[in-house]
Amino acid sequence: YLKPCPGRGSASPCSPPANKTAAAEAPCSAGVASAGNGMAVVGDLPVPQNICISNITCDSFRISWDMTELGRERITHFFIDLNKKENQDSNKFKHKEIPTKLVAKAVPLPMTVRGHWFLSPRTEYTVSVQTAAKKPDGEYDVSPWSEIVQFCTADYSLLHLNQLLQKAELVSGRMLPFSVFYRNQQEALLHPDRYTPQRHLLPAVKDDSGSHGSPISGKLRGIFFSCNTEFNTGEPPQDSPYGPHRFQVRADLLFNLSTNIYFGDFYCMYTSYHYVILVLAPAGSGGDAFCRGRLPLLDRSGNAFLTCRAEADGSLSFCHAQDVILEVIYTEPVDVTLGSVTRVSGHQLMSLSTANAKKDPSCKVCNISAGR
C-alpha cells in the first residue's frame, strides 16, 4: 500500500523528489528517541506533510515529505514512528520509558530506512514522522506528528533468494538416485474439485509455508510432489504426513530436458531437518513465465538438490539430495492416467505436515540477514 503523491492515482507509487541526488542512500540510524521530561512539542518546527513512500523492498523503504520553510533551519533530527499495521497505537512502549521511534539525522530527502531487526517482508506497516531540534542539554523540541500512512514491504528479491540458495547448498548432502515423483493424499481417487473431466490434476495456489518473504507463497499455482527416498531401500518412504494414499508418476514425465528448475525456498520448522522447495516448470509455460526473474534458475543437470541427466543410451537419470527434504512444485496440470494410486503401508504422521508451516526465525542455518 503506497501513499499517493499529490496528483497521482492511489495505485501509483510515489516519485522521489528532485533533490534525491544528495542523500538517496542516506540510511536511517536505529537510535531510540529520548523519553525524558525535557521533550516538548513546539509550534515553530515544521510538521511533515504529504508523506511519500517509495523504493520498497523486503527490509527497506525510501521516505520523503514536504515541509514549510518556517523553522526548517532549527531541525537537527527526524523521528520516525514505525509500527506493524495491526498495532495502531502510535509510540508503543515496550517498557514505560522506551518508545519505538527511530531516530535519523536531518539529512536531505528522500531518506532510505533499512534494517532487518525491525522490518519484515510481506508485512503491512504504518509510519508517521515528526521533526526535532536537539537542545544543548540533550533533550529535544519536537513538532506535532504528521499524518499516518501505510505501506506493505515486498517479497524476497533474487538477491535474497540467492543468499538462501547458498545456505541450502551447504547442507544438501550427497545425491541419491530416484525414479518417481509422488504425492500423498487423503483420497484414493483424486477429489472432484481438483481434476478436470479429462482427468487432469490441477495446480492450486501455494500455501504460506516456509519463509515469510518467499515470492511463491500465495501466488504460484502448482501441484506438490515429493521425491525423497529411504536410504536403505531406494524407495519412497512407507510413512506419510498427508494421508494413506499415494499418487506416483515416472520422474521423466515431469522432469526432462524441456523442464526448467527453480529454487523457491529453504526453511525449517523448529527441527533439525530442513526443507528445500523447488519449482519444475515446462519451458515456455505460464509457470515458467512466473518464475523467470523471480526465482534463481538452476542447472537441471548440475545443481545440489534435484538433477536430470541424459545418459549415453538416450535415457534420463535422476538424483535427489540426501540431507534435505525436497518439496517439488510442478506448475502445470498432470494427467492422472499417466500415474498410479497405491496405499501407503506405514503410519500417517500428520504432525509432520508442512501445510502453512511457519519458519523458525532463529535458525542460523536457514535464515538470512534480510527480514524473516
Descriptive overview:
It is a single chain. The protein is built from three helices and 26 strands. The strands form seven sheets. Strands 1, 2, 5, 8, 10, 11 and 12 form a seven-stranded mixed sheet that branches. It folds into two domains: 20-152, Sandwich (Immunoglobulin-like); 158-352, no CATH class. It is mainly beta. The two termini are 20 Å apart. The longest helix is centred in the middle third of the chain and has 12 residues, at 158-169.
Short structural description:
Pfam families: fn3 (PF00041), PHYHIP_C (PF19281). By secondary structure, this protein is mainly beta.
Task: Using brief descriptors, characterize the structure shown.
single chain, 372 residues, mainly beta, Immunoglobulin-like, 2 domains, six-stranded mixed beta sheet, disordered N terminus, FN3_sf, Ig-like_fold, Phytanoyl-CoA 2-hydroxylase interacting protein-like a
Task: Give the SSE layout.
Elements: E1 31-32, E2 40-41, E3 49-54, E4 60-66, E5 77-84, E6 93-95, E7 98-99, E8 102-105, E9 111-114, E10 124-134, E11 140-142, E12 149-152, H1 158-169, E13 175-178, E14 180-185, E15 200-201, E16 204-205, E17 221-225, E18 245-250, H2 251-254, E19 259-267, E20 275-282, H3 286-291, E21 297-298, E22 306-310, E23 316-321, E24 325-330, E25 334-335, E26 340-343
Parallel strand pairs: 2-11, 20-24
Antiparallel strand pairs: 1-8, 3-4, 4-9, 5-8, 5-10, 6-7, 10-11, 10-12, 13-23, 14-18, 15-25, 16-17, 17-24, 18-26, 19-20, 19-21, 22-23
Protein name: Phytanoyl-CoA 2-hydroxylase interacting protein-like a
Pfam families: fn3 (PF00041), PHYHIP_C (PF19281)
Family: Belongs to the PHYHIP family.
